[in-house]
Amino acid sequence: MIDFDQLDKTIHEKSRLSIMTLLATRGEWAFQELKAELGMSDGNLITHLRTLGTAGYVQESRDDSGTRPRTTYTVTPAGTKAFKSYVDVLEAIVKTINPG
C-alpha cells in the first residue's frame, strides 16, 4: 500500500515540480532562463522559488560583476534528496498500475 502522505507537498505543486525538475536535470539556471522556459511571470516564479528556498531545496546566487546583475538558482543537497524521494514515491505509484 502506497502512503500518499510521503509525497512532498512543497514539491508536488505543478510549478514547483517544474522548477525542481529543471534544476535537478541541468544544474544552474538563471532567473530569466527559468522564466522563459516555464512561461511564468516574474512574481509567480519568484514566489515559488522563495517557497523552495525556505524549504532549503533551492539556493540563490547573485552575480553583480557584469553590466546587469544575474541571479541563478541551483538545487541544494537537501533539495536533491527531497526530489529523489518524491520521484521514488511516484515510481512506486506507477509500479502499482503497471507491475512487472
UniProtKB/TrEMBL annotation:
Alphabetical keyword list: DNA-binding
Gene3D superfamilies per UniProt: Winged helix-like DNA-binding domain superfamily/Winged helix DNA-binding domain
Name by which UniProt lists this protein: DNA-binding HxlR family transcriptional regulator
Classification via SUPFAM superfamilies: Winged helix' DNA-binding domain (SSF46785)
SMART domains, sorted: HTH_ARSR
HTH arsR-type domain residues: 6-91
Coiled-coil positions: none
UniProt source species: Prosthecobacter dejongeii
Keyword 4Fe-4S: no
Highest taxon in the source lineage: Bacteria
Sample GO molecular function, one term: DNA binding
